[in-house]
Amino acid sequence: MAEVYEGEELIAGVRKTAEVIRERGPALVLTGAGISIDSGIPPFRGPGGLWEKYDVEEYGHIEVMRRNPEKAWIMLREMLETILKAKPNPAHLALADMEKAGFISYTVTQNVDGLHEAAGSKRVVKFHGEGGKLYCMKCGRTRKLTGPEDIDPIRCECGGYFRPDFVFFGEPIPPNALYTSFTEAEKTGVILVIGTSAQVYPAAQLPYEVKRHGGVVVEINPAIGPLTSTITDIMLKGSSTTILPKLRDELIGR
Ligand SMILES: [Zn+2]
Question: Is the pTM of this model over 0.90?
Answer without folding.
Answer: yes
